[in-house]
Amino acid sequence: MSEDLLAAYDQHLRGTGTPALGAWIEQDGPLLRIVGEHRGFVTGPRDLSGHDVDALIAAQVAFFGGRGEAVEWKARGHDLPHDLPDRLRAAGFVADPTETVVISGIADTPTTPPAPEGVVIRRVGREAIPAIVAMESQVWERDCGFIGDHLVGSLAAAPDRLAIFTAEAAGQVVAAGWVALGEDGVFASLWGGSTLEEWRGRGIYRSLVAVRARFAAEHGYRYLQVDASDDSRPPDHLGA
Prior knowledge:
The protein is of the alpha+beta class.
């Protein structure tokens, strides 16, 4: 990633985003945290070297532990101090598989790949969320109801900044993805993309990316961002 894009990432994507309805954002020193969703979320500036990092970590563990909630600390590879991941593990956090931040200029992202034959891609609302949860649960062989809770809450909190798309075949949801529009009008983030096994390898994921890129472009956004990994299972975090 170029230094310019890395700087843009640090400027625009270090926040928490819009919390779901009923959740809220708190600040604890240099950190921001979301409270009240299915699990907590903590993020901070690139450089925490001037702070008592261990005390900050302990405070988050105590806070969310007192609420009986799991918590994710969003750590990036270029964060400082460099031993932040080691400090988090020492406090009981478990690292997810490494993800790569992928940023693409929307102008450079194809927005026209058609859906495969027999597949319909459409924007959906709250009524489709149970079917999305059922598909996600089948893909990951676990209860993914928390995804539905997040989508319902996010639609209620900021319906103009979240667009959900499904890929359907014979009346069944076979894949789904959503795009969250950042408050600053610069970055749009892609989420989801799970696809039933028998429907993989047919271009459905590519079509879902294209329709979401087109949606973001129509709303004036410059960049698409996704946290990409070979294994993008719903993660287990401290307390999960």
